[in-house]
User: What shape does this take?
Amino acid sequence: MRAPILAAALLAAGMAASGCYAPQLLRLQGGLDSLRTQVDTLSARDAVAWQTLSDTRRELDSQRDVLLSTRATSTSSAREVSEALARIDGMLEDVMAKLRISNDRAAPSAPSTAPPAAVAGPGANTLYDQATQDLTMGRYAMALQGYRDLLVRHGASDLADNAQYGVGECFFAQAAFDSAATEYAKVDLQWPRSDRVPASLYKLALSQERLGRAAESRKTLEELVKRFPTANEAQLARDRIGIVRR
Amino acid sequence: MRSRPAPALLALALLTLAVLASAQPSEVRIDLQSGAAERLRIRCESFTAAGDRTARVTSVEADEVLAADLAHSPVFRVQRAWNERASAGLVPQFVTSGRWQVTGATVRLTGELRELPGKQVVLTRTYRGALTDWRRLVHQFADDIVLQLTGESGVASSRIAYIVKQGRDKELWVMDADGHAARALTSDRSLAQSPSWAPDGSLLLFTSYRGGAGPQLWVMSPSDRRPFLVSGRPGLNTTGRYAPDGQSLVCTLSQDGNAELYRLDARGGSPRRLTNHRAIDTSPCWSPTGRELAFTSDRSGTPQVYLMDSEGGNVRRLTYDVTYTDSPDWSPRGDRIVFVTRTDSGFDLYTCRPDGTGAQRVVASGRNENPRWSPDGRQVVFTSDRDGQEGLWITDLDGSPPRKLDTGGRRALSPAWSPRLPGVAAE
Assistant: This one.
């Protein structure tokens, strides 16, 4: 700010020395006044900015105190939670170890043709229980993964047909009737003696009906009635054949 | 396929704490499952009354209502600032306070929840409503406190429908979840039974002999109390329950000669038989996903709880090793089913997982029946004569003694806990 003032003063002195006229001096005086006003305005703004900065710094200090206090509280709580989680982890490890021992004792030996890696990991019971729990609670993606894991790892297990039915259920519950029909049909194709077949055929027929394939649905229901006339699903099928026909 | 083996015990406890302190008010959430964690300790301080002369009177009542709401939630242990001796030794983790302002016929509650010891503000809410309806504001504040600390709203604003036995008649009643504001919905001088709520809480489905043609299914809005017939088919029309999506209902009909489960549309049309067995199938309830049903059947010779797909089929027995089980109700969380079991000493309440494992006795002593879950799945309301007279009781399922609901000395039975109802919006 000082440089322009100095330059103006020098210019005024020079002009006076060279015998300039009064009107020019007056203009110069006006220019100097204007410059002084601008300098004062900038100084005032500078002071306000400084005050604002100081206030902000104080506010930041106070916020830092709050944060430090909160962190102290949180750390204490988090430590308690960490300890609780560690205890739960330990309990889970114990339970899982017992489960592994139990499954090792209870599970039938895997077919000799199966690769050893295929039976590693959780047992069929564990996978089936968890997947069924997920299905019941509406966690369909997790249930689907669980059932499919069981089919891959424990395809010879006597829970495999249940798992295949569960795969169909995961799709049916999400109104993916095309996929559901494909999966229900596999129960009969791969485990024709399973007691899940009547329910699978019934749900296959319902899936076909929802897909608008009434003729296929009726055919499936008639097959169900013919092959399993005493099954609970057979009576449902008889009722529904009437609906499909209508 | 072999039948399901007795699965190994797997206990999974989940405890999560998230503390975010970078903003005001700070947000504290603690995920609690019934019995999985110690209750939070909370201190209730009196509201500061302001405004009309009635403010002081109602604020004192409001203090008690808030403390009771929190105490009845299985989440908290409560210390009342105006009665500290009752909870001596309790070191609170949170404290509630607020301002209670009454202006004419309007009340304004500004409630605050702070975390101790730093007294950081965790929650501030302002509610406004009619003075005649002041309890709703307090219930809402209680529910919002539970929501803030657990991530799931409380149930203080919900209601309970039930049957009152008056001489030979049974009438349908409804009350707030804390037992207040009880009123009769029917005065038919007939027999009403088995109420259940629509999933949005706007309708009550119940069985009644009011039509003079045996048990029929009726539906009623608690606000206008005008019943409409849903199913008056020949024979039994009983134990109706709406599907979770409200688009259909399941009930027991005997129009074909035997008590079977049927699925009807929400208006009572398009009946579709779900069971077909010479045994009696009754008392159905839905899984929260609507994919499965639990029901009672005596197809094995004695009443037992069974499950099946909600389209019918895939029937499997849930309960073994007991001679009599009945009245299943599926937790809104989906993880447990509560049911009645007959024992040598009476009728006890048990819960088990939907695969039949993990059975636990949750209520014993006396005749305990008609269990129904609270909308948060943390409590069960049931009928019991454990104190010598039929009444409604609530268990927290954590081994603590059940508490009796005040029904004004009336003989109350067959409760049905509403879903969460629309609350008071905060300003």
Summary: Chain B has two domains: 24-150, 159-417. The interface with chain A takes residues 1-2, 5, 7-13, 15-17, 19, 21-22, 26, 115, 117-118, 120, 272-277, 287-289, 291-292, 309, 311-315, 333-335, 353-355, 357 of chain B (CB under 8 Å). Residues 159-417 of chain B form a domain with the Neuraminidase fold (CATH 2.120.10.30).
